[in-house]
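Quick one: Thiamine-monophosphate kinase from Geothrix oryzae, structure tokens please.
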Amino acid sequence: MSLQETGILAQIRALLPGGESLVDDCGALPPTPAGHRLLVTTDLMESGQHFRLDWHPPDLLARKLLAVNLSDLDASGARPFGYTLTLALGPEVDAPWLTTFLAGLAAGSREADVQVLGGDTVGRPAGLGLGLTAFGFAARWLRRDGLRPGDRIFVDQRPGASLRGLRKLQAGQRWDPARPDADLEAHLAPRPRLGLGLRLAEIPEIHACLDLSDGLSRDLRNLAEASGLSIVLEPALDEDARRGGEDYARCFGTSLPQAELESRLGLPLLPVGTVMPRGAAPLLAYDGDSLLPLPDLSFDHFGSS
Ligand SMILES: Nc1ncnc2c1ncn2[C@@H]1O[C@H](COP(=O)(O)OP(=O)(O)O)[C@@H](O)[C@H]1O
Ligand SMILES: Cc1ncc(C[n+]2csc(CCOP(=O)(O)OP(=O)(O)O)c2C)c(N)n1
Ligand SMILES: [Mg+2]
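--- reply ---
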């Protein structure tokens, strides 16, 4: 069954929360509550680059597209309220695929209490591009640039599981709901701890935060560079945790001791680094007794492999 633009829009209107209001040239953002900032984030997911159609069930793909954007907003201390959706669909997908995709997006939207605000739908000769732009309000915009020397950096989920899931898919393993696999789940259906960023933003001793999407070896560098400082990587982290990618943990710097923060938040935290004044490079790791710059191990969008 082939796709038609009017039929696609009718389905979007019928299935997605907020879809009934998609009738005009523009949508409207709600007024920003007093004392809040309106924040925006966007992520584009491309077949071949971010996912493979033959690996990724359409409902999980839609949930991931939403989750990666909500993860950015939450890590910035924002409560999301809505999003726009851009679909560029090649001939590889048919009507049942799209219905399952939209059903997954609808379920994810209800869980997160967010509505569709607009979007665009186009065809393309081959492959898929899925774009989502999400909006939220923050009472405190928890940015990357507030680290202080002496802060420790923590994450709420051990990085590396998504990378292992990707390797399993590359080796031929496939998603089977009857045989759950934590690594495949971390990769195909990541569950960022949404709401934690909001709570962190309420704690003044949390100085900076980001959404861990590229992996520690890149994102800790981003955090250190934004703050004009250096981070020393926690020595105990193994290679998978260092490399990671698509982890979607909250990664934050704080002057509070680990035990105190864990009891306030009611969850275990993993230390991943310590902040120091700017050294030889933004991100350093121990190699024996010497402290050396850590190379960027993360996924390269423009690399050859
Ligand atoms: N093509 C672009 N046009 C405008 N801003 C961009 C573009 N690509 C990235 N950015 C901005 O650069 C910053 C870092 O982007 P990115 O590395 O994708 O962040 P993240 O890894 O957290 O998603 C963000 O503020 C993002 O909005
Ligand atoms: C088919 C396929 N190949 C490789 C990857 C690995 N991968 C793709 S993008 C990415 C990093 C995160 O994506 P990006 O677009 O940089 O997201 P952002 O940091 O902007 O949120 C990784 C690890 C994948 N998910 N699927
Ligand atoms: Mg990125």
